[in-house]
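Anyone else keep sequences and structure tokens together like this?

Example one:
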Amino acid sequence: MNDTIAQTSLKRPFVLSGGGARGYAHLGVLKAFSEHGVYPEAIAATSAGSIAAAFICDGYSTDEVREIFQRHKLGLSMQWRNWRAGFLSLKKVAKVLKQTLRHQTFESLDTPLYVTATNFVTGNQQIFSEGALIPAILAASSVPLLFPPVEINGSQYVDGGLSGNLPVEPLLAEYRDIIGVHVNPLTPYNPAEGFLANVERTLHLAIREPVLKNKLLCSYFIEPEDLGKYGMFEFNRLEAIYTSGLEYTRRQLQQQPVI
């Protein structure tokens, strides 16, 4: 591994995709960028990416966020077999966010954050950048059929990936040289895969075209290929997912440094 730490730091805007358990790879990706002296100037994110982004914009390091996940056993509580026990309400995530986030509003964060969710009535993308932070994160992470919609100011919102899983839009007016991080690589089709794999593939195909368009608006793009072997519901494999994001990004930055 490259132990060289950059002597000067760069600030760049980041956009972090959703991806269920694969969203944990964002911490590995951001860790690798920090090793090269590249830190978020602002972050736009949705779904699982918004959870990671909230901690980073709140001033936590990636190592500190990992410690929070481990201490509160978030991965364990989010495994498929435990959902019937009540995780469908996202109460565990809400509780941990309330206990650990230093700031509870967008305006008080150390780094600007834009969280996107989907209006469950119109299907339009909604950008949250003001007011209460936690309701926006929960709305952005509420996958329909698995989690109930979240009501904010009288409107119902669900997972932001449905209206744009690489939500670069909030950054375009003010920021340049955007770094995109997408944690849902499309894997080769295998007809022998089971029901959950087919559900995931259907979802990824449905939201893929807007991702490809927004990828073109990024000056640097990260999509760890190895993440394809992890399911979006495999919260028991968070450390392997983190390592995949970390090592892939280290290799990419060695080959193509950010300038």
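And example two:
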Amino acid sequence: MITESQLQPENAVRRDTVPAGDYYMQIVKKGQTFRILDLEGNQAADTLFYNANHPAERYSAIDTIREQGNVYLTTGTKILSDQGNVMLEIVADTCGRHDTLGGACATESNTVRYALEKKTMHACRDSWLLAVTEHEEFGLTKRDITHNINFFMNVPITESGGLTFEDGISAPGKYVELKAAMDVIVLISNCPQLNNPCNAYNPTPVEVLVWDA
């Protein structure tokens, strides 16, 4: 559902630009709202969420999909944890839908989807692993990298139940906005993938803005 935000960028308490291939890892406090802004269009922001006070609790694709009865996320979607708790709610969305099934690119999946020589190309899992290694204060390790949300990514489901990776449906200036229902660690990999049509084969920066309650 397309829903415009009433929040103004000049009132944000934090504003970060995340280059393609880089990561964003910050705590968003309960009651705060944050926006992922697709600056140039058709970019994919692969995102994980963790309970900042108990990181073993994290985003669950299974619970989120089951409770809302839809594999796509948009305005009104409640992001659930693996303990059935609401972590965040999407409160504004100018893109329309976001993927929960496509997963994150990895060096291994690059060889399966594209070609053997693509294995050495940078991937989202590399960014996440770098993030948890450089930020030991969050208490996360490789084993905590689980299934993610692909904001702005277009992964239609075929009639036979398969997945296809198609051109993105986002555009410059599109955004998704979420309000935190608990203190959450937000871990984003701004996808560096040069092989995927979802970002028009041209990875670009995204911006993350945070507002207080």
